[in-house]
Structure formats: C-alpha cells, structure tokens
Amino acid sequence: MNIALIAHDKKKDDMMRFATAYKGSLSGHNLFATGTTGQRIMDETGLQVHRFQSGPLGGDQEIGAMIANNKMDMVLFFRDPLTAQPHEPDVTALLRLCDVYAVPLATNMGTAEMLIKGLDRGDLAWRSVANGEKGE
Ligand SMILES: O=C(CO)COP(=O)(O)O
C-alpha cells in the first residue's frame, strides 16, 4: 500500500511518536510525506520515506495529485486545528480529494491508530483488488 504521512508543526512530535510506535506496520508499505515531516520520520525512525515539497511549498498538492491518479491508499494527516496555516486552501483541497476518491483519511492520532490496526488486519485489501494489484 502507498501511505501518506503529514503533520503540521505542532503535531510533528505526535507523528514521530506514532511512526515509532507503528514502525513495524509502516515498514511493510511505501511511505510518502511532505518535506519536513518526511525528513524527521527518516531521521528519527530509520523508515524510508519518499519526500515531496514541504506542505506550504506544494507538498500537500503533490500528495493530492497521487490521490487523483489513484496512487494513494491511505492518508494520515495530523492537523493542527488551533493554528492558522498560510496554505489552508491546499490542506482543504487534499482532504477534499480523499473524499472524492474514498481514500481512508485520519486527521488525528486517534483515528490514525484505528486505520493502522485495520491495515494490519487486512481491512484495506479491497483497495489492491480494486486497483488490480497484489497488495503491499
Ligand atoms: O504543512 C504541512 C501540511 O499541510 C506539512 O508540511 P511539512 O511536513 O513540510 O512541514
């Protein structure tokens, strides 16, 4: 599966804790991230991550483009609901595309844990079937 990991600045520590806790699950998948989030995940967990631009510089849109091309299976986006973001339109557009394409989306750590546990259980196997792939 292709999984996107994104965290706003004040949620990056949470994302690092999450990625560390679920490193075993995440390591079996292709990981993508916005620039700064991806760099920190690689530095702090050793996981391999494909990094896009930083969020404010277009990274959210690059991940959105993968969704539009049916190349993203799950988005874990730890949003900061208490801080205004200069690229709020990009954030909204990314969330909207998840809904357009029915891509499982978590916007906080609680939901992200449920999705990862579901992933481990094979709950997302339907996506690889729908995409004509063999999974992972
Ligand atoms: O701003 C972001 C998502 O909207 C995250 O971008 P960075 O991972 O580059 O900080």
UniProtKB/TrEMBL annotation:
InterPro entries in alphabetical order: Methylgl_synth (IPR004363), Methylglyoxal_synth_AS (IPR018148), MGS-like_dom (IPR011607), MGS-like_dom_sf (IPR036914)
Annotated residues for binding of substrate: 8, 12, 34-37, 54-55, 87
Domain MGS-like: 1-136
Catalytic activity: dihydroxyacetone phosphate = methylglyoxal + phosphate
Entry's EC annotation: 4.2.3.3
UniProt keyword terms in alphabetical order: Lyase
Cross-referenced CDD domains: MGS
Broad EC category: lyase
Active site residues of this protein: 60 (proton donor/acceptor)
Pfam family, one: MGS
Sample GO molecular function, one term: methylglyoxal synthase activity
Family note: Belongs to the methylglyoxal synthase family.
Main function: Catalyzes the formation of methylglyoxal from dihydroxyacetone phosphate.
Protein name in UniProt: Methylglyoxal synthase
Organism: Cytobacillus gottheilii
Organism ancestry: Bacteria, Bacillati, Bacillota, Bacilli, Bacillales
